[in-house]
Design goal:
The chain is α+β, with helices and mostly antiparallel strands. It has helices at 5-29, 32-59, 63-94, 101-107, 130-133, 135-139, 174-183, 201-230, 233-263, 269-292, 294-297, 304-311, 333-336, 338-342, 379-387; strands at residues 113-118, 142-148, 151-154, 167-172, 316-321, 345-351, 354-357, 370-375. The strands form 2 sheets. A 4-stranded antiparallel β-sheet has the order 1-4-2-3. Strands 5-8-6-7 form a 4-stranded antiparallel β-sheet, sandwiched between helices. Helix 1 runs parallel beside helix 3 (63-94), helix 4 packs across helix 8 (201-230) and helix 8 (201-230) packs parallel to helix 10. It starts with a helix and ends in a 10-residue tail after the last helix.
């Protein structure tokens, strides 16, 4: 039975976002298994994209229909480009191209990482539900997807029962990765804490730029999906600004990488190739995110099937405004524990005309701040309650 555009679009969104998380995580852990997961997902994404193109062509019954369906094809092409760029990042690991160790040290300063954990013999997780395991409170890690044989389950519910051989994909603090690995019957990574760089400042600067470029590209994608779901041209403009920022960062990355090359010996130059390949792929991801927003820039807005598909994806996007006197005013994201209490992850915060992407836990909220978050639908009401946002949920797109 042929799947609908809505079903296929929801799958491609979830798959492309997971690919992005896993690709950067493969670099962080220098993990071939994570990189291979990206390749598996890219193959599935190709199948879904091809099927979607067929369905869209068959569904167009008039010139007006074709005009609006063309917007869906544009969105599909952009999602495919994100998947292809994520694969390019993964292949940096699989081809042993190498990246400077400073990249991994910088990524370890991030408050959240993505990890892959397989349930092995002797694990303490099989036959138990996710709710029973309470991984967020016990380890700080959230299960964002499960691979069971060849099938992927995105955004699994709390009543999902784990099975031997399941492969879990999780997000959370790096300290939580080894805790889950031990529960799953595996050996801990034993990640060392970040070290001070002993290399020259030209390479340090290039690495800092790459990490900033990675973060900006990820947020550009998140804002693009947010713009489509919320039908918000303001968010579409922010995604475009993020893309502009990525262009600048990539040009700066090239300049500082070339400067660093002068200071390195021959054996270290391959690491710079890996640095540039990841940077180029990240810039392509931001370009694709900007292209996605085209569907909300027209007078008619996105085709209804696009918004419906994103609304039915496993994670939704919601916004919330901080009200004066609310429980969140004057408190940091870390103190609020929004992910633990609501399941919602803060993608960005707008204060006036200024957006802060991927805010850290030390970020303090003020009255009037607008939070754009992703997470389960049931977390939106809790998020609105904590921020004091009195708008009815039916106002959401």
């Amino acid at each position: 039975m042929r799947r609908t555009v809505k079903e296929l679009l929801a799958e491609t969104k979830d798959a492309s976002e997971l690919m992005l998380d896993l690709a950067y995580a493969a670099v962080f852990f220098d993990d071939d298994d994570l990189a291979r997961e990206v390749i598996k997902l890219e193959e599935r994404l190709d199948v879904a994209v091809h099927e979607m193109r067929v369905v869209v062509i068959l569904a167009a019954r008039s010139p007006d229909d074709a005009e609006r369906m063309a917007a869906i094809l544009g969105l599909v092409n952009a999602v495919e480009e994100i998947g292809d760029a994520a694969e390019d990042i993964a292949r940096v690991v699989l081809t042993d191209l190498g990246v400077p160790g400073e990249v991994r040290d910088d990524l370890r300063h991030a408050e959240e990482v993505t990890a892959r954990v397989k349930l092995r013999d002797g694990n303490r997780m099989a036959t138990r539900s996710l709710a029973d395991l309470a991984l967020p409170s016990e380890t700080g890690m959230w299960v964002i997807a499960i691979r069971r044989d060849v099938d992927y389950l995105y955004g699994p519910a709390g009543d999902e029962i784990l099975q031997d051989g399941d492969v879990l994909f999780l997000q959370g603090p790096r300290e939580g990765v080894d805790l889950v690995r031990e529960m799953a019957g595996g050996e801990p990574h034993g990640l060392a804490p970040p070290v001070e760089s002993a290399r020259l400042s030209n390479l340090d600067r290039a690495v800092d730029l790459l990490v900033e470029l990675k973060n900006a590209a990820e947020v550009a994608v998140g804002l693009a999906y947010s713009a489509i779901l919320l039908r918000d041209r303001g968010l579409a403009r922010e995604a475009s600004r993020a893309e502009d920022r990525c262009d600048t960062l990539y040009h700066d990355l090239q300049r500082w990488t070339l400067r660093a090359a002068v200071d390195l010996d021959q054996s270290e130059l391959d690491e710079l190739r890996g640095l540039l390949q990841i940077g180029q792929a990240s810039e392509r991801i931001a370009d694709a995110a900007q292209e996605m927003t085209r569907v909300v820039e027209g007078e008619e807005g996105p085709h209804p099937v696009i918004a419906a598909a994103l609304a039915e994806a496993d994670e939704i996007v919601a916004d919330a405004e901080v009200a004066a006197g609310s429980p969140s005013e004057g408190r940091s994201l870390k103190d609020l524990s929004l992910e633990t209490d609501t399941g919602m992850y803060v993608l960005a915060i707008a204060r006036g005309d200024v957006w802060r992407y991927r805010p850290r836990g030390t970020q303090t909220l003020a009255a009037g701040d607008r939070l754009v978050c992703t997470g389960p639908e049931e977390g939106v009401a809790l998020l609105r309650e904590i921020t004091g946002d009195a708008r009815p949920l039916s106002d959401d797109a």
